[in-house]
C-alpha cells in the first residue's frame, strides 16, 4: 500500500463532517500517483468515489489539470491567425442527440481556424457514441496516428485528434475503475476542461449542471486560461441546442467573463435538435451535410458553425457567422476539407508502413 497516497485519501474520504480539501499541489500529486498507478487498486477506487461524493474544488481541479499537463500528451504550437480551438466534450459519448461537433470542426478548419479534439472509445458510465467512431464512419481513422503524426495533421490540415488509448495510456488505464465504481469520477470533470495543445488556445467546455460551469470558470482562472467558452450543450457537449435558448459563458482575454443567451428563433432557426439515429444512419446524416444537402442536421451545423465562426474571430458578427456557415455547407467546403484530411491521414499511414 502506498502510505503517501493513503494520507491524501484520508483527507478526502473522512466523511461529510471531517473530510478536507486538498491543496492544488496535493491534488496534482494524488493525480500523478493514480495515473502512474503508484496507488493500489483499492486506493484508486476509494479515492475516485470519495472525491466524487465530496465534490472537487476549483483548486483541486486545477491541480489535477497540472498533473495532466505533466504526464499527458501535448501538441506543440503551430502558426495560425486564430487561437487553436480545443473542443472538450464528455468522453462517455452521446445517447440521445446527434453530435454536430465533427461538422463544426470541419467548418472551422476550412477557414483556417484550427481545431483539436480529444477523447477515447466507448466509455462508462453511458457508453454512448463517441467522436472517434463518428470520424471513423466518415473515413477518418485518427486511432492509427502517433502523436507526432497527429501533430503533423494539425500543421497540415488545421485539424487533429488526441486519442486517449494511444496518446495517453495512463489516463486510459483509469477507465476500468470508472466502470467498476459506476459513477463519473473527477477525471470526467477535468476532461471537459483539459487542453492537450501547448500554444495559444481557445478552450470550449461543455456542461450540464451550473455548478460544473462555476468550477470550470474558477479552475481556468487559477490556471490563467482567460480565453474560453462554456456551453450548456446537448448532453453536456459543446453543441449548441436548437430546442432551447443556448446558455453560453465567454471567458475573455482581458480576464472578464460575460454571459450570452442565444435563442434560435431570433436568428430564423427552427427549434428542433436532430435525434441520435442508429450509428450507420447517424453517419449518413452527417455525410449528407458534408455533401451540401439541406436538412435539419444542416440547420444545426449552421447554427453551431455560425456561432463558433464568430467566437473564434473569423466573422465579426453572429449574423455574418451564420451566413458564412451556410455558404461553407452549400458550396462544398466541408466536403473539400474532409477529403483533404482523409488524404493527409492516408499519406501519414503510408509513410509509417
Quick rundown:
By secondary structure, the protein is an alpha/beta fold. It has 16 helices and 7 strands. The protein has 2 domains: 58 residues, Transferase, Pyrimidine Nucleoside Phosphorylase, Chain C (Transferase, Pyrimidine Nucleoside Phosphorylase, Chain A, domain 3); 252 residues, Pyrimidine Nucleoside Phosphorylase, Chain A, domain 2 (3-Layer(aba) Sandwich), CATH 3.40.1030.
Provide the residue-averaged pLDDT.
Answer: 96
Straight-line N-to-C gap: 44 Å
CATH superfamily of the largest domain: Nucleoside phosphorylase/phosphoribosyltransferase catalytic domain
Please tell me how large the radius of gyration is. 20 Å
Number of strands: 7
Give the strand line-up of the largest sheet: 3-2-1-4-5-6-7
Helical amount: 40-55%
Q: Give the low-confidence spans.
A: none
Name the beta content range: 5-15%
**N-to-C SSE series?**
HHHHEHEHHEHHHHEHEEEHHHH
Question: How many helical elements?
Answer: 16
CATH topology of the largest domain: Pyrimidine Nucleoside Phosphorylase, Chain A, domain 2
Query: What is the 3D form?
Result: globular
Structurally, how many domains make up the residues? 2
Largest sheet, if any? 7 strands, mixed
CATH top level of the largest domain is: Alpha Beta
Report the structural category. Answer: alpha/beta
- Write the CATH architecture name of the largest domain: 3-Layer(aba) Sandwich
